[in-house]
Amino acid sequence: MLRIVKTFWKIASSRIIFSKPKKTKTVVWGVPKYAKKILKQKKFNLKKIEFIEIWGESYNFYILLKCFSKLKFSLLDYSNEYIAYVNPKIILSFLDNYKTFYKIKKNLLQKKIIIQNSWRCNEFKFFEKNIENSSNKVDYIFVQNINIKKKYQEISRSKVITVGSFLSNSIKIKTAQKKIDVLYISTFRDIEKKNLVINKNIFLKDYIDSEAKLIGNIHNICKLNNKILHILPSQKLGNQQIENEFYEKILGNQKTFKIIKRKNFNYKFPYKIVDTAKIVVGIDSTLLYEAFGRGIKTIFCDIRPKNKFLEKARHFAWPKKYPKQGFFWLNKNDPEIINKVFLNVWKIKNEKWKSIFKKYNQNLMIYDKNNSQFIKLIQEI
């Protein structure tokens, strides 16, 4: 009963669309802010695509009536009714970690396609169980590297294709002059949620404290080597003032660092910034892996607190197992170690870095310019 009440409250707070859905060849399930922009960029006619919004942005009145007449109130019920009515050839989603999509019903003529949205680990045990059955299976999953491909193959019967980051692939790599010495990719999270449990005795506060220590160490190393540190804040624009204050409190009001100002959501902006950096450094954000995939010198600092479970479930290059420290990655929040890795990457010639990129990119992040494999598959279907 409580779930039904919550469902009605969510619907009452949403925009209601009274026209029936269009009969189209393509349905996109879940609509991240960048999805429509990228599809339009790839010459998809948005007027011929039905978008099923799943976060309460809108509901279709006709589909709701069909659900309520059958006493069905879940998102899965709504999605199944919507897709059954539209009867598309392609059911596409960018939300690879939403189990509901794997359960959506389809017929034998329809193809379900998922695009990996972000860097994944097994912190929430997503890869421990089979997530689909043969009748509703996802036909194709586009993923970021060969190791995560194996993980998706273990839990699904899908054809898994390695393409890298769909978002990064959509944006041309700029080879213009590098203007930023060192760019730090922030993974800041809301301090008010610091008591949120990550796993057992590890809290969000521990993650925040480890990042605070890391940014202090990186800032000192930049000063030591006469480099200006730039910080790219996280995407949560509502937290940007809090995030700026977080870094200013740690680093002081000095001229040795700069916090880059984000504007309204612009999915191209972060890639334009990383392309102008000589070195990109961070912990484990998707953008950090994408920067590596774009050929930029990158340093991974795997310094978050861990217990036995997190040692296995969340680490640099997961699920690939590398030594705890390498030429461009480290796992200790130690100034001497960070400085050593920093100098490794800073001094290496571009041609030598290209050979390192070729050695590791299949395991970290591939780059498929303009998502050629995805476009080819869509055209074939």
SSE topology sketch:
Elements lengths: L1 H11 L2 E3 L8 E4 L5 H7 L7 E4 L5 E3 H9 L5 H12 L3 E4 L5 H5 L7 E5 L24 E4 L2 H10 L3 E4 L3 H4 L10 E6 L11 E3 L2 E2 H21 L4 E4 L7 H12 L5 E3 L9 H6 L2 E6 L3 H8 L4 E4 L6 H6 L15 E2 L4 H13 L2 H15 L7 H9 L1
Parallel strand pairs: 1-4, 2-3, 2-5, 5-6, 6-7, 7-8, 9-12, 9-14, 12-13, 14-15, 15-16
Antiparallel strand pairs: 10-11
Walk me through this protein's architecture.
The chain is of the alpha/beta class and 381 residues long. The protein is 39% helix and 16% strand. It has a 6-stranded parallel beta sheet, with helices on both faces. α11 links the parallel β14 (277-282) and β15. The longest helix is centred in the middle third of the chain and has 21 residues, at 204-224. The relative contact order is 0.11. The model has no long low-confidence stretch (mean pLDDT 92).
Would you tell me the structural class of the helices and strands? Answer: alpha/beta
* Overall body shape: globular
Ends distance: 42 Å
Q: What is the subunit arrangement here?
A: single chain
Overall pLDDT score: 92
Count of separate DSSP helical elements: 15
Radius of gyration: 22 Å
Strand order of the largest sheet: 3-2-5-6-7-8
Annotation, overall tally of beta strands = 16
Unreliable stretches covering 5 or more consecutive residues: none
* Fraction of helical residues: 25-40%
Q: Main β-sheet: number of strands, strand sense, barrel status?
A: 6 strands, parallel
Give a short summary of the structure.
With 381 residues, the chain is of the alpha/beta class. Strand 10 and strand 11 form a beta hairpin.
